[in-house]
Design brief:
Blueprint (H helix, E strand, L loop, with lengths): L4 E5 L2 E6 L10 H7 L3 E6 L15 H14 L5 E6 L1 H12 L4 E7 L12 H16 L8 H11 L3 H8 L2 E3 L6 E3 L3 H6 L1 H6 L3 H5 L9 E6 L7 H10 L4 E5 L6 H4 L1 H9 L3
Parallel strand pairs: 2-3, 2-4, 4-5, 5-8, 8-9
Antiparallel strand pairs: 1-3, 6-7
Length: about 270
């Protein structure tokens, strides 16, 4: 699949992979600040942003999209920075293509199967979000505020609603509002998206010291627990783990300067 991307800067390649419901738009300010150190590629993953929609959305599909992207842009080796779902994609890719990784940077996600670890609250949250998105009848919608009102009845968290509403666009032919992302495909693959990385599979494929690894965690986030830090060290013995104070899961948006510092700390 040919992915949409944004590019800025000069230097060795850095590819930024956004998380679920996100897009390259969410990373423009971070990309700009890193552009003095890298040639930064901010991609839209399949079924997100300006990239094509498809019925499939497995981690294998997303990994293969990244392979195709790097091949088409003649990027032999790159630093990969992935946030949340994008971090899982980055770990999958690095495990299968270690020779193409300069550095692996994973933002606020652990190398574990979240469903297997009984993180059912995350699955239920995303299930409710995607059901709410699919329930919107855009044929009856005349403004973004109408969508905001409907979503407010189904999703309590204001920050999540605001983030989701960034995905509304107008169809260039009909002029009607629509979701930019593809909630149907994401719902179909939700089990796999939430599950993520299987520890045993990942550990069996990691060549020791193949590439530098950094995990960046939001101090207020529950996506990487104290136990997960031990797990990270089991799989990536030389991994660096950096906590960002006063930041939750969207650590790059909440503490951008500290996030940039963490990314560049071992540059």
């Amino acid at each position: 699949m040919k992915l949409f991307y944004r590019k800025t800067g000069n230097g060795k390649p850095l590819i930024i992979i956004h998380g679920l419901y996100g897009s390259s738009d969410n990373w423009l300010s971070i990309g700009k600040k890193l552009s003095g150190h890298y040639t930064v590629y901010m991609i839209d993953q399949r079924n997100h942003g300006h990239s094509p929609h498809a019925g499939e959305n497995s981690y294998e599909d997303m990994r293969n999209d990244l392979v195709e992207f790097m091949d088409s842009h003649k990027i032999g080796k790159a630093t990969i920075l992935g946030h949340s779902m994008g971090g899982k994609v980055a770990m999958f890719y690095a495990a299968d293509y270690p020779g193409r990784i300069e550095k692996l940077i994973v933002a606020d996600i652990a190398p574990k199967d979240y469903l297997l670890m009984n993180e059912t609250s995350q699955f239920q949250l995303h299930r409710n979000i995607l059901m709410a998105m699919q329930d919107i009848d855009f044929a009856q919608i005349n403004s973004r505020n109408e969508v905001a009102g409907i979503m407010a009845e189904k999703i309590d968290n204001l920050r999540i609603r605001q983030f989701l509403l960034k995905n509304i666009t107008k169809n260039e032919h009909s002029g009607k509002f629509q979701w930019r992302l593809n909630p149907g495909a994401l719902y179909t693959y939700l089990d796999e998206i939430v599950s993520g990385v299987n520890k045993q599979w990942l550990a069996s494929r990691i060549p020791i010291f193949a590439y530098p690894v950094t995990f960046i965690r939001g101090e207020k986030s529950n996506y990487i627990s104290s136990e997960d830090k031990i797990l990270i060290k089991e799989i990536y013995p030389e991994a660096r783990i950096i906590d960002i104070p006063d930041a939750g899961h969207w650590l790059h948006a909440e503490q951008p300067e500290l996030f940039i510092k963490a990314v560049l700390q071992f540059n």
